[in-house]
Amino acid sequence: MVHDRRPLAVFDLDGTLADTAHRQTYLERRPRDWDGFFAAAPQDPPLAEGIALALSSAEECEIVYLTGRPERCRADTVAWLAAQGLPDGPLHMRRNDDRRPARRTKLDVLKRLARGRDVRVLVDDDELVCDEAERAGFTVVRARWASTSTALKDAQERAGRT
To answer: Residue 40 and residue 16: Cα distance in Å, rounded?
Structure first.
């Protein structure tokens, strides 16, 4: 087996590759409907800018997916990535019981990846994740091509759910 030694391009999913606008209403309710929010993920439309960037990055890099989605969403997420024609690559997901802020969980994974490989870029829509990654020395592309609700931003940072 030949191991891929190309640099890594790390892509977030929600708000970067997948348009979550249609399911953000689940997070605006009290209490938040997490089951409904994640159950609707397979219907996410792709975000053209993110998909194009992932495909072009795959010409020189191995693509790695890094999401705050919980592990229980793995099968739906893998199927969605394949349906978009995105390259195969490792998929790092949050443990089902992990409620730490995305900026902590994602930075932990990035640092782990960087121990064995060159991480060329992180592409993410979460400003706090991007800030932390840049402070740690990673090159970041801020995915600003989707609209994100206040409820989703709160979910990423305070609730530690996506």
So the answer is: 17
Angle between helices 102-116 and 127-135 (to 10 degrees): 40
- Both tokens of 36, joined, read 């409904």
pLDDT 10s digits, 94-144: 998 888 888 999 999 999 999 999 999 999 999 999 999 999 999 999 999
- Cα dihedral across residues 46, 50, 56, 59: positive or negative: negative
Q: What is the dihedral of CA 29, 66, 53, 63, to 10 degrees?
A: -150
> CB of 131 within 8 A of CB of 103?
yes
Indicate if the alpha-carbon torsion angle 98, 27, 64, 16 is positive or negative: negative
SS3 content of the chain, % helix, strand, coil (to 5): 45, 20, 35
